[in-house]
Amino acid sequence: MADARSEVLARVRAALRDRPTPPEVPRDYERTGDASLALLAERVAHYRAAVHEVGPDELVPLLARLLAGKRIAVPADLPWQVPGVTWLVDSPPLPVAALDGADGVLTGCAAAIAPTGTIVLDGGVGQGRRALTLLPDHHVCVVREDQVAGSVPQALARLDPSRPLTFISGPSATSDIELDRVEGVHGPRRLEVVLVRAT
Amino acid sequence: MGTRNPVTWLGSPAFPEAARTALADTQLRRNLRNATTTIRGRRAAAVAELPDWERLRRAGEAIKDRVLAELDTHLERLEAAVTARGGVVHWARDAAEANEIVLRLVGDEREVVKVKSMATAEIGLNEALAAGGVRAVETDLAELIVQLGDDRPSHILVPAIHRNRAEIREIFRRSGLAATGDAPRELAEAARAHLREKFLSCKVAISGANFAVADTGSVVVLESEGNGRMCLTLPEKLITVMGIEKLVPTWQDLEVFLQLLPRSSTAERMNPYTSVWTGVTPGDGPAEFHLVLLDNGRTATLADPTGRQALRCIRCSACLNVCPVYERTGGKSYGSVYPGPIGAILTPQLVDDPHDAQAASLPYASSLCGACFEVCPVRIDIPEVLTHLRARVVSARGRTAESVAMAAAAWVFGDPARYERAQRLGSLARFLGRDGRISRLPGPGAVWTASRDAPVPPRESFREWWRRNRG
């Protein structure tokens, strides 16, 4: 008997004996859209996440206010210096128990999608590994205005699929009971998105 | 090979019999009606928000048809890309082979965590693991409810849709999960507390996949609760079981499906979490990644030029939520992890056995109203496939009760005198009917009323009335 790989591929080829023509994919759907912070803020808030919008100079004071006195996990390359916070730096990697016990986590992001209220993390600068933003119960994520895409196609075009990606649209939720969405299951139960205007 | 396909549950009755039992369960019908009514309204709103929805559907249809037309090439490309990034690809001809592979990969671990996955439910993986001494812990809330209740799934997206909050709290209580009340929030909290320790300690996780990108080797899982992220990120070893049709050719193609799927399934602009990973990434997530590519009847389905469109399915479950038959009978009547309209065309094709009476009954579990096609994000013409499969069932069986009934009807309709005699005979049925319904017709008519009530015919036919008044 042939090995499974050869046999499955042979079955596929036999099944396609009628030589179906691969159709051209019509790409006439919308590629662009509203990339405004206002739309992103509205859509993120719709998921019952907290949203703040600040100018570049107001970011650090806001973060200091949000995180004051807390134990916050951060990637080693976080680009902001915020006073008054106990930092749990993920270098060397923190054990899961330490992440689980943190009050929250602060990161940046790789991109955001305004019409769907989505932020995307790719493990790049200021984002850390995936577990970092998963185990703490409170995720504070900073989004720069130039990172916001106006559509799903525009966002995907900016992302590198070879990196581990996490698309986040609101706090963890479930619709499993009577198909009714409730927030707060295994992922962070509180998501706080900080939008930073370009100027 | 040669073993039965576990996509249908052993011992399940044919659809008409199962449906009759389900229809008598008023609690079930109430739960289903509430849930499907809610989600139907929300999906319509989520879809109406996109002016290009129809164009996205056509793009989704074309991308999936491209994948199917060149499936061998795309599979080989996916395998090469995953392997180049440090993943290991396995191939499984059927359920038994896939289960063997997974059990071997689990190794010495006695407990694994699982993300909800249709492919692993289809192959009966949990039962196979249990037989091998491995406990699979379902971490999706609805799957957990089904598992703890020793129950079967009744919906693709929300397997516990047949349960209301009070029933769920009771299932939890019997399994030692204390919920402070029966509000969904409190039940979710109980599940969180129960599963937290499992996530933090399990070494092996098992998942399915919503999509895999042939070009890049990237695998995609959409979810809501974060249990998926836990399983995909924390364990040392990740095993993903995926049907061979789940491919998209390029990264760009995902831009279509990341819009179609969330709005069609949970009626959200975007589901809370989508994870994408490509092979292994040192320092981030599992050090070992295995991808099991599953046939289990898919190539048999692919061989039918009309039926193969069922393989475009992205498991959104929109067709279940709009189906009048599903809403009344529930998912378990279909006797398979794939219920509803898509199940009625996918299950019998995956089973690929014309002599399996239960699977052969599924293409009849429809009134052919067409609502399923209207909502399908990849435009699967489910009514077309249903009628095609009915023809296949009839030709495989030769003379059946229905074909005899239809031949009798043709004989009666073919002659006016015979037709009128039959009508007068039919009006006798008034004496049989209670509450204006007939639950059992005599002769060939019994085939019709075996699964439905017939309205009582009028005392006087139109032809009789016409002759009396105008003749």
What is the structure about, briefly put?
Chain A has 199 residues and is of the alpha/beta class. Chain A is built from five helices and twelve strands.
Biggest β-sheet strands, sense, barrel of chain B: 6 strands, parallel
Largest sheet properties of chain A: 6 strands, parallel
The largest contact between protein chains, plus residue counts on each side, is: A-B, 73 and 97 residues
Proportion in helices of chain B: 40-55%
Calculate the mean pLDDT score of chain A and round it. 96
In spatial order, strands of the major sheet of chain A run 1-12-7-4-2-3
Structural class computed from helices and strand pairing of chain B = alpha/beta
| CATH homologous superfamily classification of chain A | NagB/RpiA/CoA transferase-like
Number of helical segments with 4 or more residues of chain A: 5
Tell me about this structure.
The complex is a heterodimer of chains A (199) and B (471). Chain A is globular and about 70 Å long. In chain A, strand 10 (173-174) and strand 11 form a beta hairpin. Chain A starts with a helix and ends with a strand. In chain A, 22% of the residues lie in helices and 24% in strands. The longest helix of chain A is centred in the N-terminal third of the chain and has 12 residues, at 4-15. Chain A has one domain (33-196): Rossmann fold (3-Layer(aba) Sandwich), CATH 3.40.50.10420. With 199 residues, chain A is of the alpha/beta class. Chain B has a 6-stranded parallel beta sheet, sandwiched between helices. The longest helix of chain B has 23 residues, at 26-48. The radius of gyration of chain B is 25 Å and the shape is globular. Residues 428-434 of chain B have low confidence and may be disordered. Helices cover 50% and strands 11% of the residues of chain B. Classes of the chains: A alpha/beta (199), B alpha/beta (471). Chains A and B meet through helix 1, helix 4, helix 5, strand 9 and strand 10 of A and helix 2, helix 3, helix 4, strand 1 and helix 8 of B. Chain B: Pfam families: Fer4_8, LUD_dom, LutB_C. Chain B: Keywords: 4Fe-4S, Electron transport, Iron, Iron-sulfur, Metal-binding, Repeat, Transport.
